Amino acid sequence: MDATNEPRFKALGTKCSEARRMFWLGRSVAEVHTLQGLLAKSDGSLTWLISVISRMGFVVRYVFENYIILSKAGLFKPANLPEVVRICSKFWFIAVFGTFVNNVLKLFKKQSELSRLTESCKDQTKLDKVTAERDGLVYTLVSTVGDTTNACTGSNFIQTVAGITPSPKFIGFCGSVGGLMQVYQVYK
Question: How far is CA 147 from CA 58, 69, 154, 158, 164, in A?
């Protein structure tokens, strides 16, 4: 990037990020509603527990995001805003990683179901339905790698545990691929 335009692009990126966050004020209410629904349907399974932990991570993340947004708007004066952002990133990691792990567990269950059906099922419609559900889970996992990678980096999890730091290009590439996959899935 040429040095004369770099500050303009950085300012544009910052403003776009802040504008996108304004929608998160409503997301916190939606996440609380989702969490209440999950708690009402308690079955005690591992996937249920991971879902509850993940949703709690999203709720707390959005509380911090709301605080950050309102601080930038001048309603609050935090002593250490970067520390608030760091804590927010940790809850984002819990939320995104929990969702990723839950989808992996669901994929293994769906693949087991598909294997059993392939051996014994004569109903092609049911087999096609389970195959489509399995393929949807694979698609979801691949499309969320960008968010998971970004959350791992933002929370310093991957640096602490694995000792590596994904490059911004890698994170951007994964996020772009994931975003394109999600758009394709919605509009196909």
Answer: 13, 20, 10, 13, 17
